[in-house]
């Protein structure tokens, strides 16, 4: 039973449990005294042992309770960190270079990624749409050697080579907001912008220490540039970017890894599209495919429960796709951003593109009305339609 309880609820119960044990042991001699023929002196001694037991038990229990009550929960602890610039990072041969003719961004970028991670796909959708060139380092999802230099242990990590050194940017949403700020506010450089996205460390309701970039959905524009942005329009854009990260993305894993067959098919496709045959030794590739598929099949079941998906997980995904297309239809424009995609369109497209080769994706196209929007997005991204705004 203890196993099924959260850590936070275990401590006081454990304390009470201890107290009860000590208490039960201490009253046993009292009961014994009532029916025994031993001398009163002996029973008084036993009674005082019992009493001491109760007192010690009560003190230990109280101590635990006070410790538990004082344990910080849901508080921001006083740690605000900006991502430092590295003077050097290990030279790692890129797995691929995406060079876009006529790129006027002035950026020199390397993306550390998993090819089919939805968060990495979001970043690539942004870079491709705006016609920004970048190198790719495909990270081995099991061993992750190529990001050993980074204190941040997830992907995507986007590193910008600047005059001041190598500036890493962590978290897909922060990366996109930082780059969108850079494209809108031409007076700021990447290290300046990165400083505007500090991560705050806090203890959440379960007592777990977390880092979060609180303003990651915002562009950090100067007063002058922010006047160009329509407030109502950017509220809506933020709302759907959050939906892509907090709702849509959680419907993917339970679908893609719904059965062992589907999980294996998905991992084989990841291997193909991520060029694992070229990027990793054979043993490492098979390790990732088989261990990864088995692990994700199991994890998919847990995620289904955690995110409250329907028993038929496909239906949950169809529902979300329909929510998105209905919202665009209600606007009467081809994209959420109107006549051209905005950051919400790019985020939703990026997330869905991560499962393009999976059976789930075919099912979405056949059972929802998302295909028209998806095809237009695909064209806009692969033909770099946003490059004219750079
Ligand atoms: N909030 C982050 C989430 C990134 C994330 O969870 N990435 C996963 C891959 S899809 C990861 O790197 N997990 C750690 C691991 O693989 O060990 C973002 O938007 O970039």
Automatic annotation (TrEMBL):
- List the Pfam families hit by this protein, alphabetically: GST_N_3
EC number(s) from the headed UniProt entry: 5.3.99.3
Keywords, A to Z, come to: Fatty acid biosynthesis, Fatty acid metabolism, Isomerase, Lipid biosynthesis, Lipid metabolism, Membrane, Prostaglandin biosynthesis, Prostaglandin metabolism, Transmembrane, Transmembrane helix
The record's GO molecular-function terms, alphabetically, read:
prostaglandin-E synthase activity
Q: Which PROSITE patterns match?
A: GLUTAREDOXIN_1 (PS00195)
**How does this chain sit within the bilayer?**
Single-pass membrane protein
Pathway, per record: Lipid metabolism; prostaglandin biosynthesis
Domain GST N-terminal intervals? 111-179
Q: Name one GO biological process term.
A: prostaglandin biosynthetic process
Family note: Belongs to the GST superfamily.
Could you tell me what this protein is called?
Prostaglandin E synthase 2
What is the organism lineage in this UniProt record?
A: Eukaryota, Metazoa, Ecdysozoa, Arthropoda, Hexapoda
């Amino acid at each position: 039973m203890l196993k099924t309880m959260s850590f936070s609820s275990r401590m006081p119960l454990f304390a009470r449990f201890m107290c009860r044990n000590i208490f039960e042991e201490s009253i046993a001699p009292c009961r014994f005294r009532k029916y025994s023929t031993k001398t009163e002196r002996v029973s008084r001694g036993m009674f005082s042992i019992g009493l001491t037991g109760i007192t010690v038990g009560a003190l230990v229990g109280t101590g635990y309770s006070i410790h538990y009550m004082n344990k910080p929960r849901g508080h921001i602890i006083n740690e605000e960190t900006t991502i430092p610039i590295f003077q050097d990072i290990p030279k790692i041969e890129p797995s691929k270079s995406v060079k876009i003719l006529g790129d006027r961004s002035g950026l020199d970028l390397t993306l550390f990624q998993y090819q089919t991670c939805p968060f990495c796909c979001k970043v690539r959708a942004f870079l491709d749409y705006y016609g920004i060139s970048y190198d790719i380092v495909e990270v081995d999802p099991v061993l992750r050697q190529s990001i050993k230099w980074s204190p941040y242990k997830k992907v995507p990590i986007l590193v910008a080579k600047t005059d001041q050194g190598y500036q890493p940017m962590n978290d897909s949403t922060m990366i996109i907001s930082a780059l969108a700020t850079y494209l809108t506010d031409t007076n700021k450089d990447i290290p300046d912008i990165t400083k505007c996205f500090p991560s705050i460390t806090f203890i959440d309701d379960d007592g777990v220490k977390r880092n979060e970039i609180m303003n990651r959905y915002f562009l950090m524009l100067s007063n002058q540039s922010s006047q160009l942005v329509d407030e109502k329009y950017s509220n809506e854009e933020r709302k759907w970017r959050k939906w892509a990260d907090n709702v849509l993305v959680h419907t993917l894993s339970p679908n893609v890894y719904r059965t062992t067959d589907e999980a294996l098919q998905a991992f084989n496709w990841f291997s193909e599209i991520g060029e694992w045959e070229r990027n990793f030794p054979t043993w490492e590739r098979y390790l990732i495919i088989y261990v990864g598929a088995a692990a994700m099949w199991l994890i998919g079941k847990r995620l289904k429960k955690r995110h409250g998906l329907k028993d038929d997980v496909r239906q949950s995904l169809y529902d979300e796709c329909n929510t998105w297309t209905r919202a665009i239809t209600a606007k009467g424009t081809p994209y959420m951003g109107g006549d051209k995609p905005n950051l919400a369109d790019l985020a939703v497209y990026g997330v869905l593109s991560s499962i393009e080769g999976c059976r789930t994706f075919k099912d979405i196209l056949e059972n929802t009305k998302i295909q028209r929007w998806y095809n237009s997005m695909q064209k806009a991204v692969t033909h770099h339609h946003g490059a004219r705004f750079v």
